[in-house]
Amino acid sequence: MRDATLCFLVRGDPPQDVLLGFKKKGFGAGKRNGIGGKIEDGEAVARAAAREMYEETGVRVAETDLLPAALLTFVFPARPEWDQVVYAFLAKTWRGEPVETDEMRPGWFPVEAIPFDQMWQDDAYWLPRVLQGERLKARFVFGEDNETVVAAEIEPWDGVIGVEAAGV
Asked: Which residues contact 164 (CB under 8 A, 6 or more apart)?
């Protein structure tokens, strides 16, 4: 199981707008999601989240400004190479404006109008709760189509993320 990050820039307190990226290539191409990607060997989780944000949008987020939001496990029985543990963060402070890159086309969405029909199905289970201030630990199992959530377990989480990812 690989380790990855997701980061959601939010405007307002409580969040009124959230930055989502349209994935142009690679895993999740054609879907909107938070900004993130793989954690490199030996890389701290927060460093990976900040690096991915910069690489995919040009926005700089300080590691200390990343707020742990969720620990998500995704299981794809039909494609076990897609299985992953994802460390999700919110960020309320950053430098720069999001720009389109080869991999991602970022865009702001009102929290009440998130386009869940263009996202991974699991996002509708947990993202609204995280944007309302909950911290969650969740496990999602996808069906044979690798799209449909067939099982979901969600529980409160203390929001603590270690320096290293679980699989590093």
From this structure: 42, 44, 45
